[in-house]
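Dear Dr. K.,

Following up on our conversation at the group meeting, I've run the structure prediction for Cation efflux system protein from Escherichia coli. I'm pasting the input sequence below exactly as I used it, so you can double-check it against your construct before we proceed with anything downstream. Let me know if the numbering doesn't match what you have in your notebook.
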Amino acid sequence: MRFTITPQTKMSEIKTGDKVAFNFVQQGNLSLLQDIKVSQ
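The predicted structure tokens came back this morning:
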């Protein structure tokens, strides 16, 4: 699945291989990533 990040999405703490939890909103054909965090 492909996501588009919004200007308020903070990606700086995410590293390759991290497990994450995220929220997104579907707007037409776009999946807008609104929140993403490293999860345990």
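Two things stood out to me. The mean pLDDT is 91. The chain has no helices and three strands.

Best regards,
J.T.
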